[in-house]
Amino acid sequence: VQLQASGGGLVQAGGSLRLSCAVSGNIFTPNFMAWHRQAPGKQRELVARFTSDGSTNYDNSVKGRFTISRDNAKKTVYLQMNNLKPEDTAVYFCQNYYYGYWGQGTLVTVSS
Q: Which of the residues 54, 68, 78, 92 has the least number of beta carbons within 10 Å of its own beta carbon?
C-alpha cells in the first residue's frame, strides 16, 4: 500500500489549495484517513480526519477553512484549504491511521 500526496505549493495569504492523497494497493479504508502537518521546528499535528462512523474531525486552528473529503472510487482523499494563513505553512502528510501508513508529504508555503 502506498499513499501519494500532492497539490502543495506556494500561495499568498488568503488563497486556496487542494491537496490530494491517492492510495494504491488493495487496502483503502476511507473512514480511517487523516491529514497531518509538520511546520519547521514543530511536532507533527493532526489537521483533519475521518472517524470510524464517517464523520469528520478538525483541529480548531483550521475549522471553517479546511475541508476533508474523499472519492472512494478513485481511492483518493482530499484536503481543501481556503483562506490560508502564513501559520499554515508546513509539510502536509496523509495517513491511514488504521494500518499506520503514511504518505511522503507535500509542502505548503503561505506567504504574507
A: 54
Distance CA 11, CA 30 (A): 28
Task: Give me the amino acid identity at 65.
Answer: R
Cell numbers of 3, please? Answer: 499513499
Cell 521546528 identifies what position? 41
- Give dist(CA 33, CA 96) in Å, integer: 5
Q: Give me the amino acid identity at 84.
A: L
Composition of the chain by helix, strand, coil, percent to 5: 5, 55, 40
Residue 91 has pLDDT above 80, yes or no: yes
When the pLDDT of each residue in the chain is averaged and rounded to a whole number, the result is 95
Residue type, 7: G
Rg for the chain, CA atoms, rounded: 13
